[in-house]
Design goal:
The chain is an all-beta fold. About 0% of the residues lie in helices and about 50% in strands.
Length: about 300
């Protein structure tokens, strides 16, 4: 299997995260969490637009009615890209002012799932068990699914929408839940993969057309493909940076795997060794893949 890795967005993010392929525009949406920016990169023109946020921004997803829904600080917000304005939809974790949103993704029915974590003292060093997993429904009702989370991270759904996959990074596992697409409820929590020594910390992830999960490995410098049915790692793609953070499929035929990365916490010596840290990479794996859950491309965006 042929693999090609290239750096496509060369401007560094402190903590690049949450890539989403926007099919209609041929653009890649992603955030810089601590850099407090939301970026939109056009793959045809190689131009990048940016909106600044007032607080750390964990995720941004397209909205069917236009603009984006974001997780900023401890708030779900609505972003109007043209006016660069953000309005608050709902505030969570009101009893935990030191928390913030991290990774988020929309389920196939249009609910935005996003989790929280405590603010880090430095990368991966934080007060533990402060986070929770939430979902924002189309009617703006917020549901809290569970708490006691260290670093809420990667999430996606199986192709039949009956399984929800989730990562709490410092457990070093990928977990699965039974999923009810009609109600958005989850149950029967279980482990499907345990990180092996040297693989790093599981971060963001996505699913391909064969139902396999691709997991970005923070401090591991790689993305791994795993079979959630067997718990077996199928392949490893190495990248030229250690702090790989998340991934999504995109491109004209969804054969491109876009991978975000981070440079926050690296010193000058580290940066000299990894000058592309914080950039976005395109991995061409030449296999049959899709964008994962349909929410990122079409009719299933969150709505008012």
């Amino acid at each position: 299997m042929s693999v090609k890795v290239e750096c496509v967005v060369k401007e560094r993010c402190e903590i690049g995260e949450g890539p989403v392929w926007e099919e209609k525009e041929g653009t890649l949406l992603f955030v810089d969490i601590s850099g407090q920016k939301i970026h939109r990169w056009n793959s045809a023109t190689n131009q990048k637009e940016t909106v600044a946020t007032e607080k750390f921004v964990g995720c941004a997803v397209p909205r069917r009615s236009g603009g984006y829904v974001i997780g900023e600080g401890r708030s779900f917000g609505a972003l109007d890209w043209e006016s660069r304005s953000i309005s608050t939809i709902a505030v969570i974790d009101e009893d935990k002012p030191n928390n913030r949103f991290n990774d988020g993704k929309v389920d196939p029915a249009g609910r935005l799932f996003a989790g929280t974590m405590a603010m880090e003292e430095r990368p991966t060093v934080l007060e533990l068990k402060q986070g929770s997993l939430f979902s924002l429904n189309k009617d703006h009702i917020v549901v809290k699914h569970f708490n006691q989370v260290d670093i809420s991270n990667g999430l996606d759904w199986s192709l039949d929408h009956k399984t929800f996959y989730y990562i709490d990074s410092l457990t070093y596992t990928v977990e699965a839940f039974n999923y009810d697409i009609n109600t958005g409820s989850i149950s029967n929590r279980r482990m499907v993969y345990k990180m092996e020594e040297g693989e790093g910390i599981p971060d963001g992830m996505c699913i391909d057309a064969d139902g396999r999960l691709w997991v970005a490995c923070y401090n591991g410098g790689r993305v791994i493909q795993i079979d959630p049915q067997t718990g077996v790692r199928l392949q490893t793609v190495k990248l030229p940076v250690d702090k790989t953070t998340s991934c999504c499929f995109g491109g004209r035929d969804y054969s491109d795997l876009y991978v975000t990365s981070a440079c926050k916490g690296m010193d000058e010596a580290d940066m000299a060794k990894q000058p592309q840290a914080g950039c976005v990479f395109r991995v061409r794996v030449y296999v049959c893949v899709s964008g994962g859950s349909s929410e990122e491309e079409g009719e299933d965006h969150p709505t008012q």
